Amino acid sequence: MLSIIIPVLNEESVIAETVGASLSLPGDHEVIVVDGGSSDATCDEVRKTGARLVDNAIGSSPGIDRQLNQGIAAAHGEVLMFLHADVRLPNRAVELVQEAMAGDFVAGGGFLPHFTGNVSGGQRRLLQGVERVWRERTRRFTWFAGDTAPFVRATRLAVAGGYPMTGFASDWDFATILRSLGRLAVISDSVLVNARRHILNGVVKTLAVTGSVEAMYHMGVNRPFLRRWYKRWLPSDR
Q1: Is 122 part of any domain?
Q2: SS3 of 136, please?
């Protein structure tokens, strides 16, 4: 079985659609939503869908790494998928993951991304360029971070110590760990990534900030500084 784990924080406007679409996928799977202490109606929207909800108290200290480990603890699947609230899976996602994981030598993998959303002409061209680079990077380097719906065999992640509890940029740490666990599958069917945050913050600004953060991350700059830098320039994000 595939366990789809969705961490959320104040996502009342999109979470019902994401969860509903995930629940309706054909195949043997479960959907677990882990709230990070939302102060809006996110949890109420999840409850309406009938999905499993791990509900932290309002005002809890949010952290995707902590939330994902809570989801892992609640999961029953042999394969775990980490899905962002802005991402929609293709209709055959469960079947495609099952096919990819048919051989025991495969540790996990992910999907190729495709941006969606109401984007103006100039921004759309920029996003198309970003998408081409992102897809090629994902395909060539099997680097499954962020919105690529990465999945992993539960037993292998358990041996690695679970999802990395490293705070800011833990998804990049996870991508590194995933690559160390064995062969990875690249599923060419695209996940649909809502570009709303790129649009809200501005595509050029978003690219500049995230690019600078990633460069500093690889240089070993400490996480508190990276978080402050990111939040200073991209406040309209998690």
Answers
A1: no
A2: helix
The pTM (predicted TM-score) of the whole model is 0.94
- Same domain flag for 159 and 237: no
How many domains in the chain?
A: 2
β partners of residue 6: 33
Residue 164 is assigned to a structural domain of this protein: yes
- Domain span including residue 100: 2-110+144-185
CB 31, CB 51: distance < 8 Å: yes
The answer on 215 and 149 residing in a single domain is no
CA-CA distance, 32 to 18, in Å (whole number)?
Answer: 12
Q: In this structure, are 90 and 178 located in the same domain? A: yes
Q: Which residue has the tokens 């495709």?
A: 114
User: How far is 128 from 124, CA to CA, in rounded Å?
Assistant: 6
In a domain, 234, yes or no: yes
From residue 163, alpha-carbon distances to 16, 41, 173, 188 in Å are 25, 27, 9, 25
Residue 81: both structure tokens together: 């998928």
Q: What is the CA radius of gyration of the chain?
A: 17
Same domain? For 12 and 51 the reply is: yes
Q: pLDDT-derived band of residue 236, with 50, 70 and 90 as boundaries?
A: low
What does the pLDDT look like over 50-78, one tens digit per residue?
Answer: 999 999 888 777 799 999 999 999 999 99
**What residue ranges in the chain does DSSP mark as E strands?**
2-8, 29-35, 52-55, 79-82, 87-88, 106-116, 151-153, 183-194
Contact 39, 33 (CB under 8 A): no
pLDDT in tens, 152-201: 999 999 999 999 999 999 999 999 999 999 999 999 999 999 988 888 88
